[in-house]
Write a structure and sequence with these properties.
164 residues, single chain, 3-stranded antiparallel β-sheet, 70% helix, elongated
């Protein structure tokens, strides 16, 4: 539905309280929310780049370590889908991560065609260190929020994540 179509459908709505002013306010809120989400993403991305810059690994490798740390061993295809890359691209990355001793490849127990990727002890330590930095950032960013606001934020972000 385009914005124009959205506006015209609201203007002709059968709801008694629907007005052009409400439609304009919703449009304005959508734009403001869009910009705030983008700004937050850019700031978080910049923070993430600063954290990994001198650690000897790439941002995509850190995201792989985060996914494996949170979800445990994963099939290559599943991991590639979660990261948003092809299995070919992931294979090159995993080769480097195996060489760095952050992950190992294991045969799948029931599917001989599948390979699992799992963190090594060194990879797990890296995950825990990076996760602690994320937790500190989250704590710092939400320090001035009440516990109720933090719960609302958690619920709203969870709902947004579910839309992907």
């Amino acid at each position: 539905m385009t914005v124009e179509h959205h506006h015209s459908s609201n203007l002709h709505s059968s709801e008694p309280h629907s007005t052009a002013a409400q439609s304009t306010a919703a449009h304005s809120t959508d734009h403001a929310l869009n910009h705030v989400i983008i700004e937050f993403y850019e700031k978080l991305s910049s923070w993430e780049h600063a954290i990994v810059r001198d650690k000897g690994f790439s941002l995509s490798q850190v995201h792989t370590i985060e996914l494996l740390g949170v979800h445990g061993a994963m099939r290559m295809k599943e991991l590639a889908d979660k990261i948003g890359v092809t299995t070919g691209t992931l294979t090159v990355q995993i080769d480097k991560m195996v060489e760095a001793q952050w992950v190992v490849r294991l045969p799948h127990e029931t599917d001989r065609r599948s390979i699992l990727v799992e963190l090594t002890d060194k990879g797990q330590a890296l995950f825990l260190e990076h996760d602690a930095l994320h937790l500190q950032l989250t704590t710092d960013l939400t320090a001035k929020m009440s516990s109720e606001e933090r719960i609302v934020l958690l619920n709203l972000l969870s709902r947004m994540n579910n839309e992907f």
